[in-house]
From TrEMBL:
It comes from Kitasatospora terrestris. One of its GO terms (molecular function) is kinase activity. NCBIfam families: glycerate kinase. Coiled coil: none annotated. The keyword Hydrolase does not apply. Belongs to the glycerate kinase type-1 family. Keywords: Kinase, Transferase. This is Glycerate kinase. It comes from the Bacteria.
Length: 380
């Protein structure tokens, strides 16, 4: 008797494999392998993200429309970015404008990098009629507390001479006064939801500067400058609004952009993968499924703390559907990944014939992984 797939469709919902494959390509390759091993299976590709880099791509793969926007990059030079739009909902990915990957020549600029372009992306979404904006934070090159973002949306930041502040976290040390101007009016009726997976406050040993500054090229002296600027910024926002969000969980996200979103844009925060799965219609996609396949570049201890595969596993388990994982590297023990809800887990490193193949032949090996999972879990 010919082997046939069991009833029910398969949902392939991986995150990107950072440095090798985007989420949509991972999904396509795994799906191709599944179809090869189980030709009769219905396979639905739904790449996901946790609110960081790849959020825009996931929204586009789910049917959102790409809207190109030219904005200021982290150092002020123009970059070609985009937002995703569907009906009255827009997806804005911070990394599109102010991400580390947008730095000219890859040269870090810890003191001068800013978030102005993020505000421009939000403004574009509002002009297009969006009344709900999902703001994905992650991969930020700046530590400006979101000051540039709110400047782009109409707020004025001035020193004691009445001169508008230059971009970047270092300039905030000279901040004397904030004029919120048309900021609130421009966002009237617009709800901003931040996809965020960190709970860092703005300041202190767990704050934006101390934890993330070194990743953005900040040395010891730079860290002192940036912390001083963010402290001045928090004090000025408190004086202007009467509210203090510096210790709010997530205020330190993306160099403090989380702080400005909460304090000045009236944003709410939600766990990134939870918000993205809702936005992408995951619950509907998984209804009646036989299997979900997810994954990311490295399945490790961080995965278990709010990363995309863990979120997918939790949602699929709630729906009573088995979940398998494909990863570039697998650093969890079998007990750990089974406890996290995975029925099976495959690493490209284990499928590779030569060291390095998991990077250089990632697409091919992802297909092999899909084929093996289908043979093991779908075909009878």
């Amino acid at each position: 008797m010919t082997d046939t797939p069991t009833q029910g469709h398969v949902v392939v919902a991986p995150d990107k494999f950072k440095g090798t494959l985007e989420g949509a390509e991972v999904a396509a390759r795994i799906a191709a392998g599944i179809r090869r091993a189980a030709p009769g299976a219905e396979v639905r590709e739904l790449p996901v993200a946790d609110g960081g880099e790849g959020t825009l791509a996931a929204a586009l793969a789910a049917g959102f429309t790409r809207v190109p926007v030219k904005v200021a990059g982290p150092t002020g030079l123009p970059v070609d970015a985009a937002i995703a739009l569907r009906e009255d909902t827009a997806v804005v990915e911070l990394a599109q404008a102010s991400g580390l990957a947008r730095l000219p020549g890859g040269r870090t600029a810890p003191l001068a990098a800013g978030s102005y372009g993020v505000g421009q992306l939000i403004a574009k979404a509002v002009r297009l009629g969006a009344t709900r904006i999902v703001l994905g934070l992650g991969g930020s090159a700046c530590t400006d507390g979101g000051a540039g973002m709110v400047q782009a949306l109409g707020a004025g930041l001035y020193d004691s001479d009445g001169t508008e502040l230059a971009p970047g976290g270092a300039a905030l040390r000279r901040l004397d006064r904030i004029d919120l101007g048309p900021l609130a009016d421009g966002l009237g009726g617009v709800r901003i939801v931040v996809a965020c997976d960190v709970d860092n406050p703005l300041l202190g040993t767990r704050g934006a500067t101390a934890v993330y500054g070194p990743q953005k090229g900040a040395g010891p002296e730079d860290l002192l400058v940036l912390e001083g600027g963010l402290t001045r910024w928090a004090d000025a926002v408190h004086a202007a609004t009467g509210q203090d969000y510096r210790n709010a969980p997530g205020a330190g996200a993306a160099g403090g952009v989380g702080f400005a979103a909460l304090a000045l844009l009236g944003a709410t925060m939600r766990p990134g993968i939870e918000l993205l799965l809702e936005l992408l219609g995951f619950d509907e996609a998984v209804r009646g499924a036989r299997l979900v396949v997810t994954g990311e570049g490295c399945l490790d201890a961080q995965t278990l703390h709010g990363k995309a595969p863990a979120g997918v596993a939790a949602a699929a388990t709630r729906a009573g559907v088995r979940v398998a994982a494909v990863a570039g590297r697998l650093e969890l023990s079998e007990d750990e990944w089974r406890t996290a809800g995975f029925t099976a887990a495959l690493a490209l490193t284990d499928l590779a014939e030569q060291p390095g193949d998991s990077m250089t032949r990632a697409a091919e090996l992802a297909e092999v992984a899909g084929e093996r999972l289908a043979a093991e879990l779908l075909v009878r």
